[in-house]
Amino acid sequence: MKAFWICSALLSMVAAIPLQNTNIEEILRNDNPSALESIILNLIEDLRETIYNGSEDLPVLDPLYIDELTLTDEDVPLPGAHLQLKDTTVQNLGSFVVDEISVSSLLIINRVHLSGYIPVIDVDNGHYDLSVSVAGYSVFGAGRSRLKIINPRITADLTIQLGIISGMTLTQCDVKFNLGAFEPEISGLFGHEGASEFVNWFLQDLVPELVIFYETEINDFLSDVVRDIVSDALP
Questions:
Q1: What are phi and psi of 43, to 5 degrees?
Q2: What tens digit of pLDDT does each residue of 23-50 get?
Q3: 162-186 average pLDDT score
Q4: Bridge partners of residue 114, in order along the sequence
């Protein structure tokens, strides 16, 4: 599930990127989808620049250093979950690729489709402490871990409606998360080094299956995050 939370954190960073006086409403009223596509692509590149170089409000995010992070069942949709991470480095957040973008207009209705992925996210963790029970499986352990999160993809479909006189409203926001693969190298699982190799192999299949199992909850959460970001950005 780390893949989902890392990608959702990346999405939240978009809220820190200003629109720089771009008159989106005027562009939409002039029925100019290509201009809006250019604005979106420029904002994406602004996000990449911020991830690599930081800003007045954000530190450099690639690589991202996390001294300590604790997640419980109040943070993730897994009853009884507990995950503590110390001395964690996350790399390649800025290497995302946007391979699908389109904007279409019909009268006052404008639809935006956007899809992108990160080829691989590398996570190196100095120490973890994990306890979780999900889908009939119990996983626990403590030690050092390295993860490769391969091809996490986020796809967003937005509908923006223009007001009769002025203003814009986000009337639809559907966001989907997919994971290509998960490659863990985790020591200390089940408190026994001999079990770690088997569990790592097991988790390669389990984590993508959990993403599918909790697809609705994950997509609903990401849709709410993007809805808040876009609604705040619209004039």
A1: -65, -40
A2: 565 656 566 667 678 778 888 888 888 8
A3: 86
A4: 101, 156
Closest to 234 (Cα-Cα) out of 174, 175, 171: 171
Please name which of 74, 70, 65, 16 lies closest in space to residue 43, comparing C-alpha atoms: 16
State residue 49 phi and psi, 5-degree precision: -60, -40
Cβ burial 178-192 (10 Å sphere, 16+ → b, else e): bbeebebebebbeee
Q: Which of 34-48, 81-95, 136-150, 184-198 has the least mean pLDDT?
A: 34-48
Percent helix, percent strand, percent coil in the chain, to nearest 5? 35, 40, 25
Quote the strand ranges of 92-180, DSSP E: 97-106, 109-117, 120-134, 137-150, 153-162, 168-178
CA angle 96, 224, 176 (to 5 degrees): 45
Amino acid at 167: G
Segments forming the whole domain that contains residue 151: 2-233
Helices then strands, each counted (H, E), the chain: 5, 9
Can you give the CATH number for the domain in which 189 is found?
Answer: 3.15.10.30
Share of the chain above pLDDT 70, in %: 82
What is the number of structural domains in the chain? Answer: 1
Separation CA 30–CA 136 (nearest Å): 55
Q: What pLDDT is recorded for position 185?
A: 93
Distance CA 9, CA 233 (A): 18
d(CA 138, CA 125): 21
Question: pTM to 2 decimals?
Answer: 0.77
Adjacent-strand bridge partners of 83: 71, 130
